[in-house]
Write a structure and sequence with these properties.
Structural class: mainly alpha
Radius of gyration: 23 Å
Number of strands: 0
Distance between the termini: 58 Å
Shape: elongated
């Protein structure tokens, strides 16, 4: 019985050493492919290296590597950020519409279809706020902002900026824009 904890610790150490060895091998392969000008292979080995780095990292940083993989396939995909922006646009439009429908003073001046259209426009303007669309959006919904409205707007703007960054990274990597 006393040998079992040592065996499991030895197995974990051996497994970790193998992962570190594989990570170094992927790093060397990435460097060699970069020197040879093989961009696709270089990024393939970069993605493998990042996956192992995430597995070897402490528990509190694993989520960042997982999110980086989920959102952009380690900077390789440009479809994932586009899908993320569309999802944020759809769900935040619904959140805005539900929030504004709950406010009684807007029921008097807008029907539900017009409110949904305005909520979708507000959501689009928040996602692409870095391009200045929020200045062109009619601010009838934001005349008297509540805390919920401000939190929705800020969170959507931040998510939009993150997805735009990963979209640019994916386009740059995918089409070899250096």
């Amino acid at each position: 019985m006393a040998d079992k904890p040592r065996d499991s610790e030895a197995q974990a150490a051996l497994s970790r050493n193998l992962l570190e060895h594989d990570k170094r091998a992927y790093e060397q392969l990435r460097i060699k492919c970069g020197a040879l000008g093989k961009v696709e292979d270089e990024h393939l080995f970069f993605r493998r290296e990042m996956e192992l780095t995430g597995r070897l990292s402490p528990w509190y940083t694993r989520a960042t590597y997982w999110l980086y993989h989920l959102v952009s396939d380690y900077g390789y995909s440009y479809w994932r950020p586009i899908a993320g922006m569309v999802g944020v646009w759809y769900f935040w439009s619904l959140f805005y519409a539900l929030h504004f429908m709950a406010r009684d003073q807007l029921h008097l001046c807008m029907d539900r279809l017009e409110l949904l259209r305005s909520a979708a426009g507000l959501s689009f303007a928040n996602i692409f706020a870095v391009f200045g669309f929020y200045r062109r959006f009619p601010s009838d919904l934001l005349v008297d902002p509540t805390v919920v409205t401000v939190l929705l707007t800020v969170s959507e703007t931040l998510l939009g900026f993150v997805f735009l960054f990963f979209l640019g990274l994916g386009l740059r990597t995918r089409f070899r824009l250096r």
